[in-house]
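Structure first, sequence second, as always.
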């Protein structure tokens, strides 16, 4: 699998310390869900280093006291931000190499910023929950394309932040023969046992 193979060498953008005031911390401001009035679906503009803007939508569901958020990462944004590539030839190469790939950024957050992988929220020990999110959780995702085709997740990447951020984030990978700009993401929540969640996602 191309995407997962290249990601393990990537440097994660994580905050250096946890503060109560995150107004100057892009890592927190861009993702932290502060309260029940600040988690609605919204359009998200992703800006590349060359100034190009890509519009995607960010969908959030709240089940109990857990927020679930899904966003499609356009492939060029993914290449520049996650693979840390800026050279035009390298970007062109990977855009061709990853043609038909779709990356969904998926986040879990407890409303009081508690660690969701503790026994308070799962029916297992912490290490087993970490392994589930790193590997087994890929089986809980599939997507339905605009044409009505069903595609299974080909893998996930769990971004370990070692409790420096108040959410858990994974990247979910899909592969289709055609470019995917719109899909319905289906998540069967076996980890927190909150049932099936559906997210209608698209990019422009």
């Amino acid at each position: 699998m191309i995407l997962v193979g290249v990601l393990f060498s990537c440097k994660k953008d994580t905050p250096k310390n946890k503060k109560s005031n995150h107004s100057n911390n892009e890592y927190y401001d861009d993702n932290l869900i502060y309260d029940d009035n600040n988690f609605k679906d919204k359009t998200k503009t992703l800006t590349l280093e060359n100034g190009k803007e890509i519009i995607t939508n960010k969908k959030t569901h709240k089940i109990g006291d857990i927020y679930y958020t899904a966003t499609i990462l356009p492939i060029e944004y993914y290449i520049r931000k996650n693979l840390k590539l800026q050279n035009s030839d390298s970007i062109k190469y990977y855009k061709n190499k990853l043609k038909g790939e779709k990356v969904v950024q998926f986040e879990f957050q407890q409303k009081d910023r508690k660690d969701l992988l503790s026994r308070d929220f799962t029916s297992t020990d912490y290490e087993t929950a970490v392994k589930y999110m790193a590997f087994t959780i890929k089986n809980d995702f599939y997507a339905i394309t605009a044409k009505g085709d069903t595609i299974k997740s080909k893998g996930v990447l769990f971004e370990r932040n070692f409790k420096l951020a108040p959410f858990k984030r994974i990247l979910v990978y899909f592969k289709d023969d055609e470019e995917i700009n719109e899909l319905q993401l289906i998540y069967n929540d076996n980890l927190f046992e909150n049932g099936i969640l559906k997210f209608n996602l698209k990019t422009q």
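Margin note: The chain is about 20% helix and 35% strand.
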